[in-house]
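Review form for a predicted model. The reviewer records the input and the model, then writes brief findings.
Reviewer: anonymous (R2)
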Amino acid sequence: MSFEQLVAVIRSLNTDDAFRVRLDNSQWKAFGAYLGNQQVRPGDVIIRQGGTDRQAYFLGEGMMQVYLKTAEPGSRVAILRAGAMFGEAGMFSQGERMANVEAMTPCLLWVLHLTRFEELAQRMPAIALEVLRGAAGVMASRMRANLSKRLPLA
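Model under review:
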């Protein structure tokens, strides 16, 4: 999958928590230079609840599940599909990760490490600001959804 294909998948995702940014094609291309990619297998846990890693992800291909560490049934919070952003809250906060994120199928992820985002902010602040605005929109949408389900926020 090329980065251009990822952008098309992100743009086509029609969910409340979609990553919606106002970037033109040249800005998307510039942003793409700051992302790495990785393949993951079904069952791979990408984010561990309680972890302190600092990166966000874009799901290019496949499906991921988000769930809480609990013995209770129904601990699954969400299923993510291609085009979704996840891990943004942990990248921008100093707190621990709030949930586990596990691959349900083979997946292709595009990764934004905090250090790369900081480089982007120094070199292209307008693009970084728009990425931050889009990530804040994702977080706000998910917070509203979790509040409506009465899920804990921490």
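Findings: The chain has one domain: 3-148.
Further findings: The mean pLDDT is 91.
Recommendation: see findings above.
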